[in-house]
Design brief:
- The chain is of the alpha/beta class.
- It contains 14 helices and 13 strands.
- It has helices at about 15-25, 25-35, 60-65, 75, 85-90, 110-120, 130-145, 165-170, 185-195, 200-210, 220, 225-240, 260-265, 330-345; strands spanning about 1-10, 35-45, 50, 80-85, 95-100, 125-130, 150-155, 175-185, 250, 270-280, 285-295, 305-315, 320-325.
- The radius of gyration is 21 Å and the shape is globular.
- The chain binds NADP nicotinamide-adenine-dinucleotide phosphate.
- NADP nicotinamide-adenine-dinucleotide phosphate binds near residues 11, 104 and 131.
Length: about 350
């Protein structure tokens, strides 16, 4: 059986989701994929990096994290090694794969960028849900991965565990992708869907914040920055085109009124925040903007926090993928699929 030693850096919603799947899917991993995964390291911002050569007990880690307790040597009460910072732990311990799941930072990609850079340099494969490092430094990071003969997989950065990047890059390989249009942000889609029921933007935003669909500071979602980050990742992984954030025409949904939404409905249309890439064979045009879509458009009827993406290729005129774009297990699944792909390719 293939043995994989895994480290999870960032043990919040997504890191815990992956850890939970390692427990619930353990039998499947062994029987179907001939794969045994040992979680040897876990890091958080407050608790630092914990490492145990023989493996950490995942249920204990999950219990501690869910109770809000610290992930510390004392709390784990075993022969665990500790470093105050993940970078030191990564440098001085040994593992095969880093799962990077710290918070997305679209200004400089940190702290995830340094974690990913160090792991690749040390010859570790990296799987990540963190958009920052890939949106801002994909050229450097994929080159580092190639130079060290390891894999960098980023499925969970776009539409969580709904397989978009692997479907386009692997499943649709050779089909000459011409355009991608997507609803890539669940928060804004929830807000626009509720506004279609006759509510005001500010009223719906408050409900979304109360229900946990929107952050206290919703800027990254409602102004389109989150969708821009996902477009940068798709431009790089699908088209090999490196775009800077300012090269994406970006309009959020804050200026959309209840009247705009009602007028669109009367015209047989739905307003959606559409992230799009159009490729002419040489360059990519990228836009994030509210668009009035006719009801028959496959993206027009995607409501609530659901995400969707439509891919146009020469051979396949229109393929639409619909699925969750966030969530603990939904995003953990994206990391798990990448982990299995890494193990398969390196065996
Ligand atoms: N949540 C989703 O549904 C979803 C979906 C797709 C992609 N993502 C992406 O996945 C990533 C994780 O999201 P999340 O929702 O799990 O975030 P989260 O719940 O806020 O968890 C972030 C984790 O990172 C840790 N962390 C922060 N700074 C660190 C550092 N310097 N070293 C080590 N650990 C550090 C935090 O520890 P402390 O709490 O101790 O600071 C926490 O455990 C983000 O980049 C997000 O954009 C999330």
């Amino acid at each position: 059986m293939r043995q994989v030693r895994l480290v999870i850096v960032g043990f919040g919603v997504v890191g815990q989701g992956l850890a939970e799947l390692l427990v619930t899917q353990r039998h499947l991993l062994q029987t179907q994929y001939d794969l045994s995964v040992t979680l040897v390291g876990v890091a958080t911002g407050r608790g630092g990096y914990l490492y145990r050569e023989q493996g950490l007990d995942i249920p204990t880690l999950l219990n501690l994290a869910r109770r809000g307790g610290p992930l510390t040597v004392d709390a784990l009460n075993t022969d665990v090694q500790h470093w105050p910072h993940a970078l030191d732990g990564l440098r001085e311990s040994h593992a095969d794969i880093l799962a990077e799941a710290t918070g997305t930072n679209l200004r400089d990609g940190e702290p995830g960028l340094s974690h990913v850079r160090l792991a690749l340099t040390q010859g570790m494969h990296v799987i990540t849900a963190n958009k920052g490092p890939i949106a801002l430094a994909s050229t450097e990071l994929f080159a580092l991965a190639r130079a060290h003969n390891v894999q960098l997989r980023v499925e969970a950065t776009v539409m969580a565990g709904t397989p978009v990047i692997s479907t386009i890059c692997e499943g649709m390989a050779g089909s000459s992708v011409r355009a991608i249009r997507g609803i890539l942000n669940g928060t804004t889609n929830y807000i626009l869907s509720e506004m279609a029921q006759g509510r005001d933007y500010s009223e719906v935003l408050s409900i979304a914040q109360a229900q946990g669909y929107a952050e206290a500071d919703p800027t990254a979602d409602v102004e389109g920055y989150d969708a821009v980050a996902k477009l940068l990742i798709l431009a790089s992984t699908v088209f090999g085109q490196i775009l800077r954030p300012e090269q994406v025409a970006r309009y959020g949904i804050t200026a959309i009124t209840r009247e705009d939404v009602a007028r669109a409905q009367q015209e047989g249309k739905r307003i959606k925040l559409i992230a799009s890439l159009r490729y002419d064979g040489q360059t990519v045009q990228a836009r994030v903007e509210p668009v009035s879509l006719p009801f028959f458009d496959p993206l027009a009827t995607i409501d609530g926090v659901m995400n969707a993406i439509t891919v146009e290729t020469v051979a396949l005129p229109q393929v639409t993928i619909v699925g969750p774009g966030a969530g603990r297990l939904q995003t953990g699944q994206g990391l798990l699929a990448d982990l299995i792909a890494v193990a398969r390719a390196s065996s």
